[in-house]
């Protein structure tokens, strides 16, 4: 009997790994491999990918575990969530403040965890995501339910110093290509970052954003 139970459990894990694939994206190899080991131990098929947007945009259910550190990572998170809305994205936050959780969830992530989360926490969040649920810290739930317009609810809408610099350059007539060259991004990535900024500020395009920036005194 015990042998049969173990065999059944192994078959369940094998079926789970075959059905669901999980991609792990993190710039640090040691941490990336540690997350892959934890996910594999939980019975899922974990792997690395150099192009997470293309990897996620396939006609089968998949999970992406994506570390978010820089502005470009937020743009990637947005693109993965838009390009593969049927898949689950777990954001791994380098700075796990409630505002970062809220931003990740508003971008389309199904859950978020701190970058220093334990393997047990990662497995629990992953299991919940697979079951169509989300494990969210209490302070993040409070942030999500705050009335729109309060300072805490609007905190993540304030551009960073880099983003304000971009807006000032756009306002004086510089092109996106020029911004990209100065910032060290490709022109395509610069477009993504600006699009993310416009959306986060609740504006549809560059013109609306610059008018808003002028009204806020950022320019």
Automatic annotation (TrEMBL):
Response regulatory domain ranges (all copies): 21-130
Alphabetized UniProt keyword annotations: DNA-binding
GO molecular function: DNA binding
SUPFAM superfamilies named among the record's database cross-references: C-terminal effector domain of the bipartite response regulators, CheY-like
Protein's GO biological process: phosphorelay signal transduction system; regulation of DNA-templated transcription
The protein's name: Helix-turn-helix transcriptional regulator
Source organism of this protein record: Virgisporangium ochraceum
């Amino acid at each position: 009997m015990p042998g049969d139970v173990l065999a059944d459990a192994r078959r369940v894990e094998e079926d789970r790994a075959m059905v669901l694939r999980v991609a792990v994206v993190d710039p640090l190899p040691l941490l990336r491999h540690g997350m892959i080991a934890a996910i594999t131990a939980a019975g899922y098929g974990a792997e690395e990918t150099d192009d997470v947007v293309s990897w996620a945009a396939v006609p089968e259910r998949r999970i992406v575990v994506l570390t978010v550190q820089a502005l470009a990572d937020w743009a990637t998170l947005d693109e993965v969530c838009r390009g593969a809305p049927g898949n689950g994205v777990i954001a791994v936050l380098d700075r796990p403040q409630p505002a970062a959780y809220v931003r990740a969830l508003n971008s389309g992530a199904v859950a978020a965890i701190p970058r220093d989360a334990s393997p047990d926490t990662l497995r629990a969040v992953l299991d919940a995501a697979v079951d169509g649920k989300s494990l969210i810290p209490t302070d993040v739930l409070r942030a999500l339910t705050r009335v729109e317009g309060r300072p805490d609810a609007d905190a993540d809408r304030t551009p960073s110093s880099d983003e304000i610099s971009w807006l000032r350059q756009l306002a004086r007539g510089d092109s996106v290509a020029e911004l990209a060259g100065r910032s060290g991004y490709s022109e395509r990535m610069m477009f993504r970052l600006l699009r993310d900024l416009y959306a986060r500020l609740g504006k549809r395009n560059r013109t609306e954003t610059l008018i808003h920036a002028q009204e806020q005194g950022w320019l």
